[in-house]
Every structure is written in structure tokens, then in C-alpha cells.
Amino acid sequence: MTNIILLGPPGAGKGTQAKRLVDGRHMVQLSTGDMLREAKTSGSEMGRKVADVMARGELVTDEIVIGLIREKLTGEAGGGFIFDGFPRTLAQADALAVLMDGLGQKLDAVIEMQVDDAALVSRITGRYTCGGCGAVYHDSTKPTKVADTCDACGSTSMQRRADDTEDALRTRLMEYYKKTSPLMGYYYAKGALRSVDGLAAMDDVAGAIAKVLDSAE
Ligand code: AP5
What we know:
alpha/beta, 5-stranded parallel β-sheet
């Protein structure tokens, strides 16, 4: 069992690669973004609280996301956990270390997906997702084979995120550089940080991640 964090700015390809690892290695994707969007759709009180914060591109409170992860960590672990979009602050990273310790689990690698900001605007504004199974597509780099029909599950419900605008992306990037990028130093100091080129083709990124996982096993 291998537990990893995928670390990178919005649009780095964390969700895309996490889904490949779920399919290929039976790992369990823990995406705090997906969990928060589910809470929003369900109309729960927490979902209503976070909706505006997320649409603006700001971070939700540590307390809320740590609570979400705590619940999931006691569930099915499959081939290991992929933390996607968590942790995003030093407080979240400390909390994760305590939670993993408590469960007798360890973090095997933190994979930084290196990209440059210029590529992110087109990745984010061109993204759409299947409402049925969550498969991720892109207008130009990964369109569905049949227009508006999911290749994986056949659903015709394609969705675009409220925060996938150039305006919200500016805020999301600012939040990333101010609050999340310090995690690189944190995990480097722990000897866990590995980097892959997130600008490479999706298959090549997947290959680089597979190498990291194989060497961590
Ligand atoms: P979250 O859902 O985590 O979004 P994010 O981190 O901004 O990342 P994205 O999902 O936008 O990008 P990704 O890296 O997964 O890219 P993808 O694979 O889709 O968070 C959303 C919000 O929730 C936050 O802003 C915050 O408000 C809140 N939140 C979540 N977690 C939180 C936390 N821990 N603490 C506080 N608040 C939290 O790829 C993007 C596009 O590029 C796709 O169309 C894809 O097809 C394409 N693509 C991917 N890889 C490649 C490639 N190699 N080449 C070409 N195209 C590619």
C-alpha cells in the first residue's frame, strides 16, 4: 500500500492523474475539492457555507477540510490513498501527519507537479467534467469522442465549474503561492518531495508518477 500527495497549482493535472491511479493501481482518491463540491450539491449547511468562498477561488477553513479527510481516512484504503488538493496549508499538513500516525500509516511520497502559470489559463477555462462518473475532459487537449457524451460512462451530463474562470483562477493561484507552496519546503525537509514535469503529455506524466510509486513501494 502506497500513500501519496499530489501537489500542484490549479490545473496542474492532479485530478487527471489521480483518476488514472484509481483505475490502474486501485488506489483511493481523496479530493477535498470533490468532497466540498458534493457538499454544495447536496445542499447541506456546510455546502452552503463554502459555496461563495469556492466560487471566488479562496481556501475553505482548515477545520472543515481536516474534518472531511478525518472521516475518509478510516474508510477503504485500497492500494493506498492519493491526497488530491489536500493538504493546502501547513496546518493541514501537520494535521494529516497526526491523523496518519494515529492510524499507523505513513506518507510514501509527495509528488510536486511542476507547471507554469501560462499553461494553466487554457487548461482551466477549457476543462469540463462528466456529471456521471467525474471523468475530466478538455475542449482542445482531451475532448470526448462524441460531443457531450462521456467516453467512460456514456453520460450526457457535462459540467463546468463555477470557479473555472480567469478571475477566480487569479485568486486560486494567489492562494496557492501564499499558502500552499510553502509545503514544498516542508516536505523537502522531510525527504518526501519528488517532482514531475506536469507540462508533459498526460501519458508521460503518468509514467513519471509510476516511477516514483514503484521506487516508493
Ligand atoms: P480543487 O477541486 O482541489 O481544485 P484545484 O486544486 O484548483 O485543482 P483543479 O481541480 O482545478 O486542477 P487539477 O490539478 O486537478 O487539474 P485537472 O487534472 O482537472 O479545489 C477547488 C476549491 O475547493 C479551492 O479553490 C478551495 O476553495 C476549495 N478547497 C479544496 N481543497 C481545499 C483544501 N485542502 N483547503 C482549503 N480549501 C480547499 O486538469 C485540468 C485540465 O487540464 C483538464 O481539462 C485536463 O484534461 C487538462 N490536463 C491535465 N493534464 C494535462 C496534460 N498533461 N496535458 C494537457 N492537458 C492536461
